[in-house]
Design brief:
Blueprint (H helix, E strand, L loop, with lengths): L1 H33 L5 E7 L9 H6 L3 E7 L18 E2 L7 E2 L5 E2 L1 H4 L12 E6 L15 E6 L25 E12 L2 E2 L23 E6 L1 H8 L6 E6 L37
Antiparallel strand pairs: 1-2, 1-4, 3-5, 6-10, 7-8, 7-11, 8-9, 8-10
């Protein structure tokens, strides 16, 4: 009776092994068919998000990159084949998990640093002016703000005041005019406007740039606009801060012979006779 049970047990084990082998062969056949018998090749895959600026060798050491295999047809042409290919290089941007590591994702550290000129678009140039806090919105301006640029040349009194004391020639002795509207500030002092994804401006050595209220403002402008700004005497600029959705519109030169707005029933306040609208 005991021998019979042993034989049954052995038979069951054999049947199980045969079934397992058959299942393995069947699954393998399905995989081969699904992959069209594709050749499998080695790649290196990002398994954990890699922050911008991380060294390639550090990413390997910290387990952010692991070896994997994929079908040859899916391996990118620039996929690295050896960890040494990115040794000493840094991630040029934040790299998300579940992607194959390619050579152009890691570059020399000097190349990865953003240059100031990279902030200029469409053949723009950068130009800097110096302005005091009274004329520069009390030093409240920050990189990325938009301003209107007025110029206040020396007063011209060629046109005498109208009869009977009417007009404002004696008040508007330095009539301001709009040189440009809605100009974007690229930098205040050495603090520049941040690019999308950046959380702080840095120096070339990677250290943070310290904010400054030096009164030095740098604008991003077309070359001809920069030429006009450079042609205005220093100390003649006056800036007004405007919102991002500000819509520029033509503004005529100031009529210095007109009554003061506060004496005009149709004006009275800067916003019209009814005052500033409620927000």
């Amino acid at each position: 009776m005991s021998s019979r049970r042993s034989l049954i047990l052995i038979a069951a084990v054999v049947v199980g092994a045969v079934a397992a082998y058959a299942l393995y062969t069947y699954i393998g056949g399905i995989e081969d068919e699904a992959n069209q018998n594709a050749e499998r090749v080695r790649v290196y895959k990002i398994v954990q998000d890699i922050p911008k600026g991380t060294f390639g060798d550090e990413a390997f050491a910290q387990g952010m990159i692991e070896e994997d295999v994929i079908a040859r047809e899916f391996r990118p042409a620039t996929a690295i084949t050896d960890p040494a290919q990115i040794d000493g290089l840094v991630a040029i941007s934040d790299l998300a998990a579940n992607q194959v590591v390619v050579s152009n994702q890691f570059v020399p550290q000097a190349t990865s640093l953003s240059t100031f000129s990279s902030l200029l678009k469409n053949n723009e140039v950068a130009i800097t002016i110096s302005i005091d806090q009274v004329r520069g919105v009390a030093g409240l301006l920050v990189p990325g703000d938009f301003v209107n640029i007025l110029v206040t040349p020396a007063a011209s009194l060629e046109n005498p005041p109208p009869p009977n004391g009417q007009g404002s020639t004696d008040v508007f002795t330095e009539p301001a005019r709009y040189l440009f509207q809605k100009v974007q500030i690229l930098a205040v002092g050495q603090t520049r406007r941040l690019e999308p994804g950046e959380t702080a401006a840095t120096n070339p050595d990677g250290s943070p740039v310290t904010s400054t209220s030096s009164g030095m403002l740098t604008f991003a402008l077309p070359a001809d606009a920069a030429q006009k700004i450079a042609s205005v005497p220093a100390g003649s600029f006056y800036l007004t801060l405007v919102p991002r959705d500000y819509q520029p519109e033509p503004l005529p030169a100031l009529d210095v012979g007109a009554p003061l707005p506060g004496e005009d029933p149709s004006q009275l306040t800067p916003y019209g006779p009814d005052g500033r609208p409620e927000s």
